[in-house]
Amino acid sequence: MKRLTLIFSLLVTNFTIANATIADDRFADVEVKAKAVGGSVHMLVGAGGNIGVSAGEDGLLMIDDQYAPLAEKIAQTLSTLSEQSPRYIINTHYHGDHTGSNAFFHEHKGATIFAHENVRIRLASADNGASKALPVVTYKDGLKFHFNNETIHVFHLPLGHTDGDSVVWFEEPNILHTGDLFFKDMFPYIDLGAGGSVKGYISAVETLLSKIDDKTQIIPGHGELANKAEFETFLNMLKATHTYVQAQKRAGVSLDDLLKAGLDKKWDAWSWQFINEEKWIKTLYPE
Fold it and tell me: How far apart are CA 229 and CA 210, in angstroms?
């Protein structure tokens, strides 16, 4: 029995190591690159959600931090912007491609993590002992930073992508980080199991569009740097596909038949690896 127990333990250990190796290999060739946007603000692109960074005389403030295996690469890119370690991190929501490096930057770099209260709740409920990944400052509606000679507004929008979404607006350079309330030129992922909803998502995008102007630069959760016109195009897609799917549902078309028929061909380019047309229809149909 002891021999079998030892063999089983070794198998589990080897399986765990193998999975970790596969995860590391997945990110082995990822480069984290920084792009200056305006004022103190930079956009970091690697794998996962886009990172926003304020870099200046007060140090570094980050918005999201991608996957855990990329933490060292992110830190290396940040070192080209400032000699200081990140002081603050704002999580736009709880998903791992936006919060994966929380523990690294909190434990090894001393960063203080901020997020909506529901982000802490969801991360804690899924926590496997990594308490250092949890936000230590939470809020209900929002907060404001005065950092690097800029005013940084953080505010919560309910029931959109998740139930803990935050967006960040840099007032002086007029730059908005939307988190995953904007997937540029892509069907979005709406986490229906974590408080997200299609109607809430559309409402959140409408709210954001009402707050910005044609000069606003937008860092989306995923995709390239964008502007208001491109955000409006995204909203038009949301409304048009939602209206179509709901009309078909009211007419008695089953989900299976709708999946076979698909959407209008003009939306083909919005389909991508994670949220293809089938997944987007399945997101739209329940509502």
Answer: 12
Backbone angles phi, psi at 39, to 5 degrees: 60, -130
Q: What is the reported pLDDT for 165? A: 98
Question: Domains along the chain?
Answer: 29-228 (3.60.15.10)
* Alpha carbon distance 148, 55 (integer Å): 7
pTM, rounded to two decimals = 0.91
pLDDT in tens, 254-286: 999 999 999 999 999 999 999 999 999 999 999
Q: Are 127 and 94 in contact (CB under 8 A)?
A: no
Measured distance CA(229)–CA(122) in Å, rounded: 33
Q: What pLDDT score was predicted for residue 24?
A: 56
In one-letter notation, the amino acid at residue 130 is: A
**Regions of the chain with pLDDT less than 50:** 1-22, 129
| Gap between the Cα atoms of 166 and 158, Å rounded | 9
H-run or E-run covering 38: strand 33-38
Check the CA dihedral 118-284-199-189 and report its sign. positive
Q: What's the pLDDT at 77?
A: 98
d(CA 68, CA 66) in angstroms, rounded, equals: 7
Looking at residue 26, what is its pLDDT?
87
**CA 69, chain centre distance (Å):** 16
**Residue 128, pLDDT score:** 54
Integer Cα distance of 104 and 111 in angstroms: 9
249: its two tokens: 């549902």
| Cα-based distances in Å from 172 to 28, 121, 141, 176, 258 | 37, 32, 21, 11, 46
